[in-house]
Write a structure and sequence with these properties.
CATH architecture of the largest domain: Alpha-Beta Complex
Strand order of the largest sheet: 7-1-2-6-3-5-4-8-9-10
Mean pLDDT: 88
CATH superfamily of the largest domain: DHBP synthase
CATH class of the largest domain: Alpha Beta
Low-confidence stretches: 1-17, 225-231
Number of helices: 11
Helix content: 25-40%
Bound molecules: threonylcarbamoyladenylate, magnesium ion
Order of helices and strands: HHEEHEHHEEHEHEEEHEHEEEHEH
Strand content: 5-15%
CATH topology of the largest domain: DHBP synthase
Structural class: alpha/beta
Oligomer: single chain
Largest sheet: 10 strands, mixed
Distance between the termini: 32 Å
Length: 323
Amino acid sequence: MAGDRSDSRRGEGEHPAHGDALDAALAALRAGGLVILPTETVYGLGADASDPAAVAAIYEAKGRPRFNPLISHVADLATAERLAVFDDRARKLARAFWPGPLTLVLPIASDTVVCDLARAGLETVAIRVPAHPMARELLARFGGPVVAPSANRSGRPSPTTFADAVDETGAKAAAALDGGPCVVGLESTVVALLDAPRLLRPGSVTRDQIEAIIGPLAEAEDDAKRSPGRLARHYSPEAPVRLNVDAPAPGEAYLAFGPTRASGNVLNLSVSGDLREAAANLFAFLRAADRTQPTAIAVAPIPAEGLGEAINDRLSRAAGYVG
Ligand code: TXA
Ligand code: MG
């Protein structure tokens, strides 16, 4: 399904001159490639949020990948309202701070185009409208949401200059936009508006500024504070999950990987054993398997290298091995 589009994703270092850069970035996004894009906070590594294979490539490009949910960037509030359910509080904050360094975590719209992998399987989505003119133009022309984590490799600081961004993940990007140094230099403030409004990540839009508009903010939950990269509770299936299973038991749903002799309630994450395709299918297949109300979801062994690390990390969580 995903196929191997790695060649079209790689620009091999040829970044076109400034005037053509936007066209190249747009073409790259449309082709499922990755784009380095400037925002007012930090440089992001962007991809089409509706394309699971493109989103998988982002996690892969960051190295030591983990499937944390990503922020969907859009051109304006009208586009954002197609992705998520906005209540009064959300609209007030959007009107006050967009475009700008505020991210809102909201329930997904039933017909949201943001794919499962971009949301790490959650029924919520993080959205922001960045203020950087180049990002806004790209997003307006693209029309849909672009997921963009900071363009650093995993465990390294977020890049705030074009040179740093290219240094970090430029080799994985099909296009790169030089928007100069980031004026904010800190990631966006993240506020969840699910039940009580909650500050998930402090940023340059301050608690006071937000509280002035929607009233008191609750703190992020304690476990979120201890591990800032994992603020979100991740999707967990109802059925127990069993890992490294070669032959599922009767009554179990089976997530295969590569060739398998299993038959019955079987979904194959990737018949050809392609990790990017498996990543792209993972959350949707966990959900589909769960809907069959199996005694358990048995999962085939997944190799540990590359994206396999993130797939295994996510599966261990689903199996309840990690907090
Ligand atoms: O300033 C920024 O926000 C930058 C620029 C590029 O826009 N992006 C950025 O993305 O910092 P990232 O992926 O490094 O951080 C996303 C944050 C994480 O803390 C993640 O846990 C949280 O947003 N997040 C995303 N979706 C979420 C969700 N559905 N529920 C809770 N938290 C979520
Ligand atoms: Mg980051």
